[in-house]
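Q: What would this chain look like folded?
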Amino acid sequence: MMSPLEFFRTLPPKTCPECGEHMEEQAESYMLECDRCLSKREEY
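A: My prediction, written as structure tokens:
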């Protein structure tokens, strides 16, 4: 069985589903899109 630490080390980098750019992951952040794509989105 893989240790939790090894599991998180082997995860692929998080990428934006809109543009494919690699995102800097932050603790307690559940955002899916990068800042650039979020800034383009229209607010409703």
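The first helix runs from residue 4 to 9.
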